[in-house]
Amino acid sequence: MKKPPRSSKSARVHKQTSGRAAPKRRREESTVAQKLTSNIIFKDVDPRVIKRLVKQKREHRFAPDEIIFDESSRGRDLFLITHGRVRIKKYTRFGVESLLAVLHEGDFFGELSTIDSLPRSARAEAMDICSIVSLSPAEVRALAGASIEFTYNLLTNMAVRLRSMDQTFVQELNRNAMSAKAQVDRLSLLIDASKIVNSAIDIDKLLRLILDVASRSINADRGTLYLVDHQAHELWSMVAQGNDVVEIRLPMGKGLAGYVGETGEVVNIPDAYKDSRFNPEIDMKSGYKTHNVLCMPMRDKEGRIVGVFQFLNKLDGPFGPEDEGFIDALSVHAAIAIENARLAREMVQSERLSAVGRMASTIIHDIKNPMGTLRMYAQVIKRKTGDAESAHLADEMIQQVDRFVNMTQEILDFSRGISDIHLETVALGEVFEGVLAFIERDLNKRNISLVRRLDYTGQCTMDVEKMVRVFYNLAGNAADAMKDGGSLTVHTFLYGGRLALEFTDTGCGIPDEIKAKIFEPFFTHGKKHGTGLGLAIVMKIVDDHHGRVEVDSVVNKGSTIRILLPNA
Description:
single chain, alpha+beta, Jelly Rolls, Beta-Lactamase, Heat Shock Protein 90, 3 domains, six-stranded antiparallel beta sheet, 21 strands, disordered N terminus
């Protein structure tokens, strides 16, 4: 069945539409032809040759980041950029991207595959909206045969690109070599630093070593290493670079170091005075000018924050990512070294305590019967004598025997880790009445006066026997600090809902560098006698009472040891 003939009206419409489209297409081709003649590959080429040999003149459009062709893909067309930019890049087998070239309007690419018929050697992708005209291999061969200028342009630009890519390749090799050398140097520095920080087991020496090697490795002028006191929720440091070694305590969350200790974030401030987190008052007090700051957490192998590094003023500019990376790597080794030092110290102390415990056990066993006999005889003398002075001496004998036995038993309990607290509600004034009278007799023999400031004498809860041992130990240590005499003031008062007991002497004071050690077992300072357990026992008893011990001291002026107990 034949199709009906098209109506004359339809024919006219089709003819009119085709007539309108043809001029538009011709105008587009003319515009593209003008763009082609401005391409560097057609420099000095006769336009008539281009018009005669380039048959397809339509543009192809590509969106930003769209791939024009990929590496190893097939295709032999030569591409001419009429609008926009194209980047040529290559990926290594490890996924590292290398940018080879950025081409602009009027440039061309893809010439190697056009010539050698091999797969593409790189990726080409649009950087922004691009318009590109492609020339087929046949058209390229025809142009090369018809125009020596075209061939010359093609070869010249290929030579320039090969030289440029060679230079880029060499620069990339140099950059990679320098980067590899820098990484090896940092690794070597880290290994040396790790050897240093693992060379000591004394905790104080170790902290100084860690801070020193860390500061030198990143060229910091000054630094401080804080350790986290998880029980007190504080940061503390006795290692500050410079001549002065002082104890610093910061509440967690306060200041840059406190913030890093609480959050674990890295704070790197290139210009301290332009950053609101920096407090310039510190510089005003110290006279030191801070330019840049690096504050980083020190984490153990489980990732727990155990300390904070704070460095000031890198000598050759602000701290960079490489400094952060080095300190991050070093912090694990430092944390392990600190933990090993603590374990070593605990093992030594444990062994020493064990020896002391064996000694105390032997003493108690050997003196139990003689001391019991002496105590019994003193009681008999007290009952039978009618002389008040003799009765008083008998009481003192009983008290001294009890004091000696209790002291030996306390050392034994401490060495064994025994914690046996019997709390009772008592009147503080009555407790101190007997204790201070006994302490005063000992002090008077050493030319030391006792000053009583009992502002609170009411009810309190404590294990009287153990707290009396605390009072004796504190008074004895205060007396040892006043070799030429002085005064000991005992002050009781309520403070912030707690019961405060202060022992203030006028002795030699406690240097800042040893203040944090005085409650450690076996630590003594400035005296040849004693076991070094007195203040350690004080701390243990106060901890068992859920209390806290504070120390204020000024060298050559005296010390105050303050005990804060729950007032319930």
